[in-house]
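Re-run with default settings, no changes from the original entry. Doing this only to confirm the output is reproducible before filing.
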Amino acid sequence: MPLERIDSSPPPSFRQGFPVLMRLGLLSLLSLLLMVADHRLGLSQPVRATASVLLSPLQWLVLQPGRLLDAAGQYFGQMDEVQEQSRSLQARAIAQAQRLQEVEQLQQENAQLRALLDLREQLAGPSRAVQILYESPDPYSQQIVVDKGLLSGVQLGSAVIHAAGVVGQVTRVYPLLSEVTLLTDRNQSVPVVNVRTGARYIAFGDPAAGPGRLELRFVPASADLRQGDLLTTSGLDGVYPPGLHVGQVTHVDRRVDSSFARVGVSAMAQRQGRHLLVLMPHKDWPAHPRQAADAASGRAPAAANREARP
């Protein structure tokens, strides 16, 4: 090995210098002097400012993950809160809509019951208030089932009316229920009178023409009928009292190849409510002066009552 590569410096144990305790004391004293000078003169302020400027990007970068986590937590927490509020508001809206529908339905039923009470006061014969339970499932007949039967005094063949007009006739009676065949059924007919002219006709149910449709049969082509004529019961059949609304003429088809006109009628009570009146057969009614006057004048009881009101 060459001599110039041999380290000629003395080993650490043989080096000469200040003792360790002395160096510790000097450094401590220097530190105290620097702290006093910094406190008095503010020597480290520029250094701190420079270090703060240089380290601010690093501090911002280090704080971003925590801030992102906090922002994500707040976002999802607010989203859950907003969704919960939305569900609560939707539930309230649905409940209020249901209550509003119930109130509207009760108002309609109240108005219908008031109209039936007014109509009941105008009729001379006994009557029973009934409620519709359901419609008959038979597609070839138009029938409804009501909640009163023999035990409530309902008789076979009784007329069923609504404040708007004639609904139909009781065709089957059970102890607790009754079946009512609607006036628009193909097997139903009712004698009517034209309020404008006083002419009498017979109206038959015409379900083939559409819901709530009637037809006047055997009407001469020269008959005085117009669109909009009001037809009421004539009372000749002994079932329906005279003066009840039946329907309005919708069209009159006078064909050249036939001596009879085809007359379509729209039933007045085709949109009846849930509550109806069942009347005893008209032939069993006692005499009633007001009803007789209304029948003689050719007016329906409901129309006469409206005219009498102020």
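Residues 123-301 form a domain with the Thrombin, subunit H fold (CATH 2.40.10.340). Confidence is low (pLDDT under 50) at residues 288-310.
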